[in-house]
């Protein structure tokens, strides 16, 4: 897979600013480029293959996400501001 898509759908109308979304998407794309070569070299998994949940902090924003390795999607599960 060449590109990681970021799925913000679980947040509904959480109000994550476009600037924060853009930075998150750039950082996750960089992570995906690093992982892609290793994923391609690994034995393919049977069925869904997801990562554990990870956290990403940007200033006062804290986000949690997991990566669906089979589909090349980072699913943002939670976004909190001001913590």
Molecular structure report:
This protein has one helix spanning 18-41; strands spanning 5-7, 54-58, 61-68, 73-81. The chain has a four-stranded mixed beta sheet with strand order 1-4-3-2. A hairpin with a 2-residue loop joins strand 2 and strand 3. The chain starts with a strand and ends with a strand. By secondary structure, the protein is α+β, with helices and mostly antiparallel strands.
Based on the model shown, name its key terms:
83 residues; alpha+beta; four-stranded mixed sheet; 1 helix; elongated
Secondary-structure blueprint:
Blueprint: E1 5-7, H1 18-41, E2 54-58, E3 61-68, E4 73-81
Q: What string, H for helix and E for strand, traces the elements in order? A: EHEEE
Strand order of the largest sheet: 1-4-3-2
What is the radius of gyration?
13 Å
Helix content: 25-40%
| Average pLDDT reading | 83
Q: In percent terms, what proportion of residues is strand?
A: 25-35%
Through-space gap between termini: 34 Å
Cα shape: elongated
Number of H/I helices? 1
Structural class: alpha+beta
Uncertain segments of ≥5 residues (pLDDT<50)? none
Number of domains: 1
Short description:
The chain is built from 1 helix and 4 strands; from the N terminus they run βαβββ. It is an alpha+beta fold and 83 residues long.
